[in-house]
Request: fold
Amino acid sequence: MKKTLDKILGSVLVFLMASIVIAVLWQVFSRYVLQSASSFTEEIARYLLIWIGILGAAYASGQQDHLAINILPPKLNEKNRIKLRIGINILVILFAIFAMIIGGGNLVYVNFELGQSSAALAIPLGYVYMVLPISGALIIVYKVIELANPKKYLLS
Reply:
């Protein structure tokens, strides 16, 4: 399951990165060559950057590539390192539930309820913020997979 999720999320991130490159290239081309800046590409690039950053954080969490300070784990024996890893994963899951899913879900709900839309694209801002609960759910899936086999994902 993890490999499938990695492949899908990685492909989505590659697509989003390609899209942001095209949007920025078009912005530069239209501004300097056509002498008329495109009004929508700046907003597209901004929203794509939000999605890339937050989905990328979920992907990094699943790959164990997130920022960590590893002072304590090397000083612990294997049994205690497993306990530490389980505790860390439980804290990450709780953060993902409360901050990303509940908090992000409320943000999405409020934006849809208020009918806020972007200036240039006129898309509902709820779609932009929807990346928060999606990424929270992905982080939880990755951490549950890790909790199912904590020895495999030991901190070094």
The chain has five helices and no strands. The CA atoms of residues 101 and 137 lie 7 Å apart.
